[in-house]
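Narrative of activities, Objective 1.

The group set out to show that a structural description can be obtained from nothing but a protein's sequence at a throughput compatible with the screening campaign. Below is one input-output pair from the validation batch, recorded exactly as produced.
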Amino acid sequence: MNIVFFAARQLHKEYFSKLAQQLTPSLNQQDSQHRASVLWHKSLWKNFVWVYCLIPAFKVDLNNIINDHVREKQNSRKGRLRATSYWPIFRVLKSFEAHILFAIYFSAIKQSNAQHMVIWNGLKFRQCIAIAAAEAQGINCFYMENGLLPGMTTLDRKGINFRNSVPRSTDFFNQLDPKTFQFELIEQLAKPLKDQFSDKPSSLPENYIFVPFQVSTDSQIILFSPWIKDMMDLVHQFDLMNEKLGTDMPNIVFKPHPACDQKYDALIEQYKHHDKLHFDTQTPTPILIQHSAAVATINSTVGIESLLLNKKLITLGQAFYQLPGLCLSAKDPSSLAKCLKDVGSWESNQNLRTAFFNYLASDYQVTGHWQESSNKHLKACAAKLVYLIDTTDSSKGTN
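Output recorded for this entry:
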């Protein structure tokens, strides 16, 4: 079989090239015709064979991809300043671009003779179009991302974040054999976070729930946050909870995301003297988790960190780790109010927590940072990909 890696960033191109080199000998042990190659998105247009794909490309329905991209741009700092009349024009231009890119990617993938494609993330505009072009040819896609756990990398047959293949049934984890568990594993994974612990800053309330902001243009918000559209809406929802719960309302500490270009100065000023809603822009996240009574997140990796540190957790969006017994889930304002009232007396299932993290570390994640690309990591990643391909092909053959 032929495998093609689709790279939309230079760093991923370099990493995929190393992985392709590592992978090819493994495949050649089975069949000398097998090979792995890398498609670099910036150079694909230079082969003008794609022009012949233009007419059929414009017949392909890419509306979901375009709509998600428009919402992402509308959520950005610059997007919030745009006039309403700007967006219909922007959508037409992006639709035109999307169909041209589909023709380019379709042609390049077809010429690669690939049966499988590996892509980074798979939730961004160009990546989504490449996936659509591959799936139109019956090509399986596999997805890579930063690791969910420290020192690891994600490789998945279904997607990343809420679309990943981590089981959503507590029965799955309850049926795992505890004899295979490393009971010191969670402590080892949590050590880098605990190494950052320090005394509680005097500015923090005595008892509080920590609520980290996320990047409003990130796919976690655009795709997997059904009822909270951005961080200002997040604060607004907790403000409504304060009105609803009164004296039962806990203190909430928000922290803006350092990678978000959205300015929250006016929002912070608005709540400067609020009794229950507070902002902290200076304290490191692990320390805010450390001293919190619980953590509430839409679906960020802070949720994973909180579970590693054995903190009570409330999810407000779609998160792959929102298993009953592992965390509380608020799917609307009414359930958020209930979660805020119940979280003090609620306790997580420690057996489920142990099984969940052992599965992630031992079965789901690939050991090693992709950024370092050590030989050990590349070998482990190549082996994992071959396994996923073999089991995917086998399951298709039995259907």
